[in-house]
Amino acid sequence: xxxxxxxxxxxxxxxTPEDFLLTHPPLKEDxxxxxxxxxxxxxGLLCAYELLKGGRSVCLCTSHTVGNGASxxxxxxxxxxxxxxxxxxxxxxxxxxxxxxxxLSSAGxxxxxHIVAEIGSKCDFRRRDVFYYTADGNPDSLREEYRWRRHVGxxxxxxxxxxxxxxxxxxxxxxxxSENCGAELNLVRFCRDxxxxxxxxxxxxxxxxxxxxxxxxxxxxxxxxxxxxxSSDFVVDARGGEALKRSPHRGQRVTVFSIVTEPVxxxxxxxxxxxxxSRDSCTYLRTTPDxxxxxxxxxxxxxxxxxxxxxxxxxxxxxxxYRTLEEELREMFFGIxxxxxxxxxxxxxxxxxxxxxxxxxxxxxxxxxxxxPFGEAGIASAAVGASWIARMVADPSVKSxxxxxxxxxx
Length: 410
Known about the structure:
Number of helices: 10
Number of strands: 20
Order of helices and strands: EEHEEHHEHEHEHEEEEHEEEEEEHEEEHH
CATH topology of the domain at 17-74 and 188-249 and 354-406: FAD/NAD(P)-binding domain
Helix content: 25-40%
Structural class: alpha+beta
Distance between the termini: 23 Å
C-alpha cells in the first residue's frame, strides 16, 4: 500500500520521517520462536504484546518499518460504536451478530486504555464523547439507531435539532451523543511505545523482512524470508493489505484524505471537543492536545494515495481534496477564527464488504491465525482480535466468534 502527505511543517505533531527509518536488522539467520507475528502495524504489535504477556516467545517480522503503513497515517480516532450502525448490521448480519459485535468493539476502547496505562504510553490518549449526527431533514433512521444503542446498554442521549443548535455551529437535524465511548490518541506514538515494550520483554523485531512463504508441517511452521526462515509453533498473519491482494472479496480499497490545522484559539461551536462523526458523508473530526483540528473525509475509490490513477499523475486532484476539507471546516465552525490547514495526509484503507473485521484460526492449519481489522473500528477491533488470538494460542478449545471468521470466507 502507498501513503502520502502534502506540505507544511506540522508533521512533527504526529510523526516525522525519522520515525520510520530502519532501526531493527532484517532476518540474517535462521531462528526459532514460539510464535511468528507477520506485520509491523498496530495489529501485529498488539498481537506481539498480548502473546508476550501470555509467556510466549515472539518474533515480529515486517517488510517495512514498525508502525508504517496504515498505522502511520491513521487519524488517531477510536470509537466504541462498532464502526457500523447497529440497524444496518442487524439487517445484513442479524440481530444477535449486530449486538455481539457492538459490545465487543465497545470493549475494545477499554482494552486500548488499559494497554496505554500498562505500558506507560505517552500517546496523549484521551477519552471523548462521540457525536454521531445527520444534517438530513428526516433523522428518523438515526433515531432508530439511537433506540437500539440505548437498549444494548450504551450510555447515550438523543439531541434534537434545537439541542444540536445549542451545542454545535454546523447544521444538524439530530444526533446521538454517546458518553465517553470514544478516544483520541497519537497512533504513531502508541505504536512506538508498544515496540519498546515488546523489546524490553524479550520480543524480537525484524524490519525489512518480507515473509514470502509459510510452510506447515507436523512439527510446526516455517516462515521463509529470502534464504532464511523462522521455525515456530504458531503464526499470526496481521497483514491487512496483503490479505486483500490474496482475497479481493474481503473488502474495497479506498483512499481517505485528512487535514490538520494550525493551533486554534478556541473551539467555539464544538461542545466539549467531542469526536464528530457524520452519517451523511463519512467524515470524522477530532482535536489534539495542542489545539489543532484533525478532519478526515473526502473518500475516493479512484485516486490512490500517491495521487495517481494507473500511470496518470493526478496529485493536483489530491491537493484539491485538502482544499475542500479546509473550506468545509471553515463553514462548519465559522465562530473559530483563523482556521488554516497546516498539512494534509492520506491513507489507503480497506472497507470490509460485510461491515465487519475478521480474525480467527485458519480452517486448514490449526496453528495459523489471522487478524484483519478492516473498517472504521480498526483500532478497537485490532485490540479485541489480538487478545482473542492470544487466548486461542494458549487454549486450543477457545474459538473466535463465528461471524468474524465467516466475514473472511468466500
